[in-house]
Amino acid sequence: MADPVVGVSVDTSSRNDVQMSMNSIPDNESKESPQEAATKPTGGELMTPKDAFAAGDSDASRAAHEARSLITSNSEQHSTLSEKLKSIVYGGLDGIITTFAVVSGATGGGFGVEVILVLGFSNMFADGLSMGVGDALSTKAENAAIFKEREREKWELENFREGEIMEMVQIYEEKGMSRQDAEVVVRTMAKYEEFFVDRMMVDELEMMVPDPDDNPWIDGLVTFTSFVFFGLFPLLAYACTVGSELEERVLFGISCGLTLFMLFVLGALKSLFTTQAWYYGGCEIMIFGGVTAFVSFLVGWFIEDILISSDSNLGGLH
User: How far apart are CA 255 and CA 94, in angstroms?
Assistant: First the structure.
């Protein structure tokens, strides 16, 4: 039987403290996964890839993609509003500037409130309809041209497969790939014909193949709606004060204020879907729109001053 060790003391209180400290650590904190860590900034909900990018959180971005791939697929759902951003900004900017240009020109030319309203509303709806139809028809024509080119590329792939493959290899070499890697990538893609044709469209012709289900008339409707909505604001000062005794100078000043404010809002809205700061985007659109309106006012003022006698009874700002 071994003798007990003499002279060695065990500090049981320190050992118990260490054990209690280890037991106090929650299991879920010590074994926290990237998915769990990604939920913290949004109060328990998994961050989207877009939110993770905005926050500069690479762990949250990785967790969001991993969770998405486990649940459904690895494809990201992009905002429908961002897909229509071009039509919204295109229609809204043209609507507010065009309508305000009519208001500025008519005011600078010395026309009365009734004339400004007639010209403003008739121009707004006519131009809005023209813009919407034009947007739809141009998109439809562009899509038709892209699909025609796609059919040609597909035909060439079917009839001269090796030649198309070597064209793609050369393109990827020019982008910095080694020939060996380029051939591996291209020949792998070429196994999937429809996918490869779409890649040929992008890499060879720089054309993005649209979704066959895309309806150009929806884009046209968005353009028309945005044109009319934003185009209303320069006319509100006149439309809401019909019959009042406010001077035209005051009405024009209110119209200028509303127009500049909505130009800023439109620019800030655009920046929500870009990397541009909202205040910078708002000021950019407001400045360019304001310059355009000012030029329109000067043209109206100049024509009235040159072509119409200074003692005309049409009135105006000068």
Answer: 16
Of 295, 293, 316, whose CA–CA distance to 304 is shortest?
316
Q: What spatial distance separates the first Cα and last Cα of the chain, rounded to whole Å?
A: 119
Residue 74 is predicted with a pLDDT of 44
What contacts 69, CB < 8 A, 6 or more positions away? Answer: none
pLDDT tens digits, 17-36? 444 444 444 444 444 444 44
Angle at 226 between CA 125 and CA 145, to 5 degrees: 95
Domain ranges within the chain, ordered by starting residue: 88-307
pTM of the complete model: 0.65
The Cα 261–Cα 267 span in angstroms is 10
Structure tokens given for 111: 């026309």
**Is the pLDDT reported for residue 122 higher than 90?**
yes
pLDDT-derived band at 54, boundaries 50, 70, 90: low
Whether the pLDDT of residue 46 is over 70: the answer is no
Res 25: pLDDT: 45
- Percent with pLDDT over 90 in the chain: 38
